[in-house]
Amino acid sequence: MTSAQNAGARKWITLFVVAVAVICALKLTGAINSTTGFILLAAAMILLVPFQRALARSRSGCASEASVRYTRRIAISSLLYVLGLGVAITLDRRMELSGALALVIALLPVLPIFGMIWAMARYIIEEQDEFLRHRAIMASLIGLAAVLGIASFWGFLEQFRLVPHAYGWWALPIWAIAMGLAQAILSWRDRREASE
Amino acid sequence: MNNRLKVLRAEHDWSQQDLAERLGVSRQSVNAIEKGRYDPSLPLAFRIADVFELAIEAIFMRDSKGDEAG
């Protein structure tokens, strides 16, 4: 990947992170309500499309086309997740949901989460480079360790009424964040060693 | 496991990227194997041996300790 190609992908992901940060700041300060926040977040996720394309261009000819497909699948799942979550929360606040309808509404953000898990599984299956596959598996195991550790720790704190209740859906964000951090650290270590 | 990948690469005047392209893997893979941080699978080890036209044991050596127990 050349520095110019790198810069293209970096520009879009930086724009996305800045947009999400601004939307979060607006929501936290009360400048916008939840519905507006979700709409803006869904709009911001469109920035992941040019990011994914820039990434694909920069990696063309490189060994890992599987990672480009993975990024595209995760971007689509994330967009559907934000939209599903927005619709579910908005309907939950405006209607008395129960029974089968509540189940259907609850599935709106859940199905894209299954999509993310499927995307990760496909990446591990499709990645032809055994070292990159090994690194992805190690990162996902670190994510799993974070989920197990934090959930167990939090559960006992909750048992003794030291912390408020946390919903089970936190499992995926904790796993994804820990996995992403692990991937970033492992990639950085590889790059540093390669330049030595 | 130790290996002579860096020496062999230098003898052929190949960069890590050159070797990676010949093996059909990423440059990161070559780097990790070269540094001894990742042991390649048997099929990849055979591909490496084929590229250098050497036997596997002429490229990869067991560690002085640990591997000898088996």
Q: What does this 3D model show about the protein?
A:
The complex is a heterodimer of chains A (196) and B (70). Chain A has seven helices and no strands. Chain A has helices at residues 3-28, 34-44, 48-59, 65-94, 99-126, 130-159, 171-195. The longest helix of chain A has 30 residues, at 65-94. The model of chain A has no long low-confidence stretch (mean pLDDT 85). Chain B is 50% helix and 6% strand. In chain B, strands 1-2 form a two-stranded antiparallel sheet. The mean pLDDT of chain B is 89. With 70 residues, chain B is mainly α.
Task: List its traits.
heterodimer; A: 196 residues; mainly alpha; 83% helix; B: two-stranded antiparallel ribbon; 4 helices; globular
Task: Describe the sheet with the most strands of chain A.
Answer: none
The number of helices of chain A is 7
Low-confidence stretches of chain B: none
Label the structural class of chain B: mainly alpha
- What is the 3D shape of chain A? globular
- Unreliable runs of chain A: none
How far the N terminus sits from the C terminus of chain A, by CA atoms, comes to: 18 Å
Side-by-side strand order of the widest sheet of chain B: 1-2
Which range best describes the helical content of chain A: under 10%, 10-25%, 25-40%, 40-55%, 55-70% or over 70%? over 70%
The counted number of beta strands of chain A is 0
What is the string of SSEs of chain A from the N terminus onward?
Answer: HHHHHHH
Mean pLDDT metric of chain A:
85
Write the layout of secondary structure elements.
The complex is a heterodimer of chains A (196) and B (70).
Chain A: H1 3-28, H2 34-44, H3 48-59, H4 65-94, H5 99-126, H6 130-159, H7 171-195
Helix pairs in contact in A: 1-2, 1-3, 2-4, 3-4, 4-5, 6-7
Chain B: E1 2-3, H1 5-12, H2 16-23, H3 27-34, H4 42-52, E2 60-61
Antiparallel strand pairs in B: 1-2
Helix pairs in contact in B: 2-3
Summary?
The complex is a heterodimer of chains A (196) and B (70). Chain A is mainly alpha-helical.
